């Protein structure tokens, strides 16, 4: 384990808190996030992550810096799958585009908390039971199989455990009430659909943690490296979503690239576990090699996707539909309740309506 100075932990915590506060204040008024604004915020988050990585290089050394950068890039690439799930959730609940940033903001806070818990448990288990790395590798190989066979698990936002639990705890009204999570009707406290959306987002992140936690533990078993890299990747997820909202369906080969990356990380885990439990003569894959493989595969899959020829003219209507905002998927999903109200069927760009 690395000997991380207390001030570096403090610097990380201060960066996260200040960044989230600035982000919240900058978006305190609900509005539609455009491409330019999303690109600017995405650049800011990436810049912060890289600057922090440079500090890690200087303070903790080249090995720690390489592990941080590799883990951050790995989590960043794996989190792209989350974006597709966000689109499904927003479509299912017909979330107006002006409210989506607020949902993702609180989703990120929840993800930081839950991911920290899972990573802490993972580090503790790996430090005591190295053989568990074989089980983690099996998880990654199975995920690779699903990606290559396009056998992704379906995610029904309305049936997720978090949403069902919320409905048992308190009633959820059909209509949105601006950016409020709770309202009072006839003296009774009720949740708005916006809170149900946050619950669905958190449930989705728990599902994705099954892949990302074992993967990042293959890069490093140090709590500081794995958590800070994950945190900075998660912080930039919202801006990345809004920046790529209309382009998600163009990344045709991204799932194949992610499959290759997961398979490679699985092999890395097997070699690590074998080196520690069977024989030290079994080689391990160095962190610089892992970083190079992730960069090359990720860049290659993105370039090939963008260079792919567009759909044939006879089906030209389809690309236009796919290029639309993610919550256009609402047409394919029923609302969270059987009786859809007028406010739920409003166009995504409509301004928020006051609560009834």
Summarize the structure in words:
- The structure is a single chain.
- The protein is mainly alpha-helical and 356 residues long.
- Strands 1-2 form a two-stranded antiparallel sheet.
Largest sheet: 2 strands, antiparallel
Strand content: under 5%
Radius of gyration in whole Å, from Cα?
A: 21 Å
Could you give the count of β-strands?
2
First-last Cα distance: 56 Å
Shape: globular
Spans of at least 5 consecutive residues whose pLDDT stays below 50 are: 312-356
**Total number of helical segments?**
13
**How are the strands ordered across the major sheet?**
1-2
Structural class: mainly alpha
Mean pLDDT across all amino acids:
81
Q: What share of residues is helical? A: 55-70%
**Order of helices and strands, N to C?**
HHHHHHHEEHHHHHH
Give the helix/strand layout:
Elements lengths: L5 H21 L8 H26 L1 H17 L1 H13 L4 H32 L3 H17 L12 H9 L12 E4 L2 E4 L1 H27 L3 H13 L1 H8 L9 H24 L9 H21 L9 H6 L34
Antiparallel strand pairs: 1-2
């Amino acid at each position: 384990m690395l000997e991380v100075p207390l001030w570096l932990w403090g610097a990380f915590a201060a960066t996260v808190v200040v960044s989230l506060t600035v982000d919240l204040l900058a978006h305190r008024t609900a509005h539609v996030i455009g491409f330019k604004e999303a690109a600017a915020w995405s650049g800011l988050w990436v810049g912060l992550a890289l600057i922090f990585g440079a500090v890690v290089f200087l303070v903790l050394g080249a090995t720690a810096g390489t592990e941080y950068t590799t883990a951050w890039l790995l989590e960043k690439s794996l989190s792209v799958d989350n974006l597709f799930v966000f689109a499904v959730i927003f479509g299912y609940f017909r979330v107006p585009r002006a409210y989506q940033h607020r949902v993702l903001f609180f989703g990120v806070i929840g993800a930081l908390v839950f991911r920290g818990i899972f990573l802490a448990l993972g580090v503790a288990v790996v430090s005591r039971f190295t053989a568990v790395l074989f089980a983690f590798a099996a998880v990654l190989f199975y995920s690779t199989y699903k990606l290559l066979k396009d056998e992704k698990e379906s995610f029904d936002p309305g049936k997720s455990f978090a949403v069902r639990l919320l409905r048992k705890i308190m009633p959820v009204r059909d209509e949105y009430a601006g950016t409020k999570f709770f309202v009072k009707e006839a003296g009774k406290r009720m949740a708005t659909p916006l809170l149900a959306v946050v619950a669905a987002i958190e449930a989705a992140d728990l599902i994705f943690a099954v892949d990302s936690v074992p993967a990042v533990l293959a890069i490093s078993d140090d709590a500081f490296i794995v958590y800070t890299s994950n945190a900075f990747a998660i912080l930039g997820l919202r801006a990345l979503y809004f920046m790529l909202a209309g382009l998600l369906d163009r990344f045709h080969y991204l799932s194949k690239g992610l499959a290759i990356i997961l398979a490679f990380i699985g092999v890395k885990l097997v070699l690590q576990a074998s080196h520690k439990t069977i024989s030290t003569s079994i080689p391990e894959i160095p962190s610089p090699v892992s970083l190079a493989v992730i960069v090359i595969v990720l860049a290659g899959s993105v370039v090939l996707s963008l260079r792919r020829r567009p759909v044939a003219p006879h089906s030209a209507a389809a690309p236009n539909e796919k290029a639309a905002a993610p919550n256009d998927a609402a047409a394919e999903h029923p609302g969270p309740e059987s009786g859809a109200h007028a406010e739920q069927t409003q166009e995504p760009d409509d301004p928020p309506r006051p609560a009834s």
